[in-house]
């Protein structure tokens, strides 16, 4: 058996005419172009995009070599093998594009949102797709001057996140603070109510400029949070951070007579910020409503 194998190996290695010398003839531009593209193709990296780069170069390379085998060499075997490799590369490219489409997000705005907010938190893309599915991948536009919520009238039935633009928060015409991009628009209102409670906005939210936001319906988001503990913890962290940012923004508006800033972290400030019935202090009542509502909800956990 070993002698037969050695005979076959010997015929493969030595059973052909010996090359007496190198030919001075070149194979033509198509052959060299194909090999140049082949050389560049193997410089691709790893991962889906790296594979897409490699096969994207291999396909035109094998196309050139197929044309070379058909027109220059006139060899059916050379043409057939390179054509087969070309078809395999095209099939692999289609597979990679399909996989990238399945793993990607439906819009550029959602991709930017994921990369700017969720990716730094280590949220997997599949989890973000579940979150995006809860608002049906829909982005809502709010023109400058349009109102998102009116104090005492608009029910608290959703949670919104600002993608672009700026929102003015006011009470009875008095400016309180701004809501900027990548901030929740109604996190204090959301946290002030339990799932079985209803309420209305205590402030008015108006678009300072053309804005775009995403919005989760209250019932659907509660169902998602009840099923997915990881998403529930994620929203808890994000909402807590967002409310803290709003509280510190309001801290700039709180002064005592000596001109010293009040520290909203002090427990004694809770009594100072309690809702007031005095007409001259109704603006402070809204600040107290935010702090009071946030403390009440979090104390209940």
Description of the structure:
The chain is α+β, with helices and mostly antiparallel strands and 301 residues long. It has two domains: 77 residues; 192 residues, Jelly Rolls (Sandwich), CATH 2.60.120.10. It has eleven helices and seven strands. A four-stranded antiparallel sheet has the order 2-6-4-5, covered by helices on one side. Helix 2 packs antiparallel against helix 3, helix 3 packs antiparallel against helix 4 and helix 8 crosses helix 9. The longest helix is centred in the first third of the chain and has 28 residues.
Radius of gyration: 33 Å
How confident is the prediction overall: mean pLDDT? 80
Task: Give the overall shape, derived from the CA principal axes.
Answer: elongated
* Amino-to-carboxy terminus distance: 79 Å
Task: Kindly report the CATH topology of the largest domain.
Answer: Jelly Rolls
Element-level helix/strand string: HHHHHHEEEEEHEEHHHH
Poorly predicted residue ranges = 267-301
Architecture (CATH level 2) name of the largest domain:
Sandwich
* Total number of distinct structural domains: 2
The level 1 CATH classification of the largest domain is Mainly Beta
Please outline what is shown here.
By secondary structure, the protein is α+β, with helices and mostly antiparallel strands. The protein has eleven helices and seven strands.
């Amino acid at each position: 058996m070993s002698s037969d194998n050695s005979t076959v190996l010997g015929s493969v290695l030595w059973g052909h005419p010996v090359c007496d010398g190198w030919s001075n003839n070149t194979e033509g531009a198509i052959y060299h172009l194909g090999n140049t593209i082949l050389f560049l193709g193997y410089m691709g990296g790893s991962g889906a995009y790296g594979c897409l780069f490699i096969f994207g170069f291999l396909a035109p390379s094998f196309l050139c070599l197929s044309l070379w085998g058909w027109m220059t060499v006139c060899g059916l075997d050379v043409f057939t093998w390179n054509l087969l490799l070309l078809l395999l590369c095209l099939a692999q490219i289609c597979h990679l594009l399909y996989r990238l489409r399945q793993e990607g997000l439906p819009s550029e705005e959602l991709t930017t949102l994921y990369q700017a907010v969720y990716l730094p938190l280590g949220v997997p893309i599949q989890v973000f797709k579940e979150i995006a599915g809860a608002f049906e991948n829909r982005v809502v536009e709010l023109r400058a001057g349009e109102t998102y919520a009116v104090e005492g009238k608009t029910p608290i039935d959703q949670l919104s996140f600002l993608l672009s633009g700026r929102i003015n928060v006011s009470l009875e015409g008095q400016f309180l603070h701004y809501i900027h991009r990548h901030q929740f628009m109604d996190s204090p209102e959301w946290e002030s109510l339990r799932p079985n409670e209803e309420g209305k906005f205590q402030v008015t939210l108006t678009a300072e400029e053309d804005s775009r936001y995403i919005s989760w319906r209250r019932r659907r988001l509660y169902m998602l949070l009840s099923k997915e503990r990881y998403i529930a913890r994620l929203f808890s962290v994000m909402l807590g951070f967002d409310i803290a940012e709003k509280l510190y923004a309001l801290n700039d508006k709180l002064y005592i007579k000596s001109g010293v800033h009040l520290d909203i972290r002090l427990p004694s400030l809770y009594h100072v910020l309690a809702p007031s019935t005095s007409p001259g202090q109704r603006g402070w009542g809204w600040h107290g409503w935010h702090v009071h509502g946030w403390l009440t909800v979090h104390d209940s956990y």
